[in-house]
Amino acid sequence: MSEVLHSLLDRTNFDLPTKATLGARIPWQQSAVEWVKDVIDRLNGRLVVIDYSVALTSELSQRPWRDWLRTYAGHEKGAHYLRNVGLQDITNDVCLDQIIATCGQPDSVRSQSQFLQLWGIDELVEEGKRIWNEESARPGLLAMKMRSRISEAEALLETSGVGGFTVMEWAKLQP
Description:
It holds the Pfam family Methyltransf_28. This protein is α+β, with helices and mostly antiparallel strands and 175 residues long. It has 7 helices and 8 strands.
């Protein structure tokens, strides 16, 4: 496996950075864009995409590439992206402008916290607190699950941690 660098000056339908430091890199997310477009073209329902993202590709040119291009193996940070091929996942932030330029504006773009609140996480947490308070003196499995729900929700709503995802939604119903 090897890295192939390309000039994108004549290949993009999104804005490239006007100023970038020497050696700056940005991801060209052609496969992701094609996948989203293919799903939207065939969609009869809702496409929900959940991932780390940036609004503009140019934002990544200002960050060290090892900050936005990451590897993971066994739920831990992995090695250099060209090492251990096939034994680690390679991921990077999704550039919303690249997807929007080809696929159109999503029906909604929300933080993970906003998405979970829309779908009732606050009510689930309140239920968890109520059950925990009622049964904490002699907690059974249900009470322990409810206590866990509370701390898990806190983590999922924390925007600087595992709750830092963006949720994009496209809806299209066929006649």
